[in-house]
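Example 5.3 — D-lactate dehydratase
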Amino acid sequence: MTGGNKTRALVLVADGTEEMEAVITIDVLVRAGIEVTIANTNPSESSAESIKCSRGVRIVPDTHLSALPLPTPADPDTSFYYDVLMVPGGGPGAQTMAASTLVHQWVQAHYAKPGVLLAAVCAGPTVLKAAGVAQGAQVTSHPSVRDQLKDYFEYRDDVKGHEIVVKDEKAQLLTSRGPGSTFELALRIVEELKGKDVMESVRAPMMFP
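Solution (predicted structure tokens):
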């Protein structure tokens, strides 16, 4: 919708982001032909610096979030929107994003845009709460942040196996639990954006169970 015929994803990262959740999502989306932009959300605005993930892996983002044009409802140029905005977890990374007014603005803009998908995993839903979006939506998360979310969202504990991704239809929101469920989440994003056939074509060669 947003970049001509291209399907585009924006993945937010910061120091302390869970590397598996970020990289698995990025990899699976790229395999599906989705153009991915990795945006640094650390307070420093240097787009060249790497971010240090929760287990020490370093990722070099494509840009800093502040360097991207923030979409607004009054702007007729819809190319500033992405088809999905993805928030990985990792406690420190999620805390950085939750404290960022700029991240709030990006999440709010995409939440308000019809046809745009939001996705979050692990501690990622705490960022959505901090941005003030999707109150009352069905979500799940890593159990460690359940108590921060259960009074704001309709929280789901009853998820496992292939049903470990929760979709709230009204909010156009996908959530899941942690590193081990990120493949399922990423494949579900592909299915939502590109269809089941494309999802299956990505899933099969990965030998995913």
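Remark. The two ends are 32 Å apart (CA to CA).
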